[in-house]
Write a structure and sequence with these properties.
419 residues; alpha+beta; elongated; disordered N terminus; disordered C terminus
Length: 419
């Protein structure tokens, strides 16, 4: 392009000289000279321009830093990790999101090789391949740093001002998404298992009844079918309650609730069951009224679920104690048992859906595996919190803390904001 323009300019100058010799008219020569001069100026201006990306559409896109650092500010603000490696393999850009993902400060990473700052052979290998071949790719891999993460890496070749090649890495942290997907799969699997077991039992008993059995056995089968049906109904009810609480769509029908009276009623309801299991059930509440703005039926569900959990994990001859007391700001409800206790490794998981501390005893109780998860969401929907203390062989204590004030207008409904 440059040579063609220069050739055209030389032809114009020659034409000007020829016209002067041939025609000899000064005004014609002046017009022609002006046109040639404009052509020459345009030619030199175009010839001095460097080829841009449009001249080489298949070449890597150039990466240039602006004078005021605007591009660096944009990279810093991005919610995904951005790493740019120069042709020498050293990091030229490393934003804050990348620093959070890999646990490395951007200032420490810049100027070092990638493997020095980000100890990932997989990422180093992919960026090196992009530097060599200028071909980008997208992969997902595990990164074992301070905590194991699941990352998606996208590489892209870039050109720098010196004509060299750089490699851009875009890193997205997929850890939470993959964990949620795993929880969803586990939840579907657990629900399927919990429903399949009673349905299988009911099917077998119905087939046996259809074949004809004597009245004593028939009555026993019918009672078993009733129990398994009740169990499935309870599971579906708990699933619906938990779904409403987790979605924030549960409505708290708040009123003035006396916690002491509620605890005494729940203990009276569970006392016959405790006696049948040879467990001593105690209830201790103050004589004064402990009134808070709350949903009475949902708090009753909290206490009943905690008592049920304690009775199922306390052996015969043990003791379960229900207490309620208050301070100026909160009311605390505690359920203490002398049962088997919970291992320290299991404590962070006991409020998860269908979590089983001891798989060997998973089928021994009548619980649905959702009771503690429902308790946690109801307490938090009231603006409270729940904590647990446990020691293997010594027992477990659950403590619910509920605010005495600030729960909103007692006469109106309040939407639960479950976590």
């Amino acid at each position: 392009m440059r040579s063609l323009l220069l050739t055209g300019a030389m032809v114009g100058i020659a034409a000007c000289a020829y016209s002067l010799a041939r025609f000899g008219q000064p005004w014609e020569v002046l017009v022609l000279a002006a046109a040639v001069g404009l052509a020459v100026a345009t030619a030199f201006a175009l010839a001095r321009q460097r080829p841009g990306p449009s001249d080489a559409p298949d070449s890597p896109r150039p990466y240039r830093e602006t004078r005021d650092g605007t591009l660096e500010q944009v990279l810093t603000a991005l919610p995904v990790g951005i790493v740019i490696v120069g042709h020498d393999g050293r990091i030229t850009s490393f934003n804050d999101a990348a620093g959070q993902i890999f646990g490395v400060s951007p200032q420490r990473a810049k100027g070092r090789t990638l493997i020095e700052s980000v100890r990932s052979m997989e990422m180093d290998r992919r960026l090196s391949a992009t530097l060599r071949s200028a071909v980008g790719e997208t992969i997902e891999f595990s990164y074992a740093g301070a905590a194991r993460r699941r990352l998606r890496l996208t590489t892209q070749a870039l050109a720098d001002d010196g004509g060299g090649r750089q490699a851009l890495a875009i890193i997205a942290d997929l850890t939470s998404i993959r964990e949620l997907e795993s929880l969803r799969r586990d939840f579907v699997s657990n629900v399927s298992h919990e429903l399949r077991t009673p349905l299988t039992s009911i099917k077998l008993m119905v087939e046996t009844l259809a074949a004809g059995v004597e009245p004593p056995a028939r009555d026993e089968f019918l009672q078993s079918i009733g129990r398994e049906t009740d169990r499935m109904i309870a599971l579906v009810r708990d699933l619906l309650d938990l779904a409403r609480l987790e979605s924030g769509k549960a409505v708290l029908q708040k009123s003035a609730v006396d916690i002491g009276e509620l605890c005494r009623e729940a203990a009276a309801t569970s006392r016959n069951r405790a006696q049948a299991m040879s467990i001593d059930l105690e209830c201790s509440t103050p004589e004064t009224r402990l009134v808070i703005p709350a949903d009475q039926e949902k708090l009753r569900q909290v206490i009943v679920n905690l008592l049920d959990n304690a009775l199922r994990h306390t052996p015969a001859g043990g003791r379960v104690r229900l207490d309620a007391h208050a301070t100026s700001a909160v009311v605390e409800i505690s359920v203490q048992d002398t049962g088997t206790g919970i291992p320290s490794t299991a404590l962070p998981h006991i409020f998860e859906r269908f979590y089983v501390v001891d798989p060997a005893r998973a089928r021994s109780g009548s619980g649905t595996g959702l009771g503690l998860a429902i308790v946690k969401h109801i307490v938090e929907a009231h603006g409270g919190s729940i904590r647990v203390h446990s020691e293997l062989g010594a027992g477990t204590t659950f403590v619910c803390t509920l605010p005495r004030e600030g729960g909103g207008d007692i006469a109106s409904d309040a939407t639960a904001h479950a976590r």
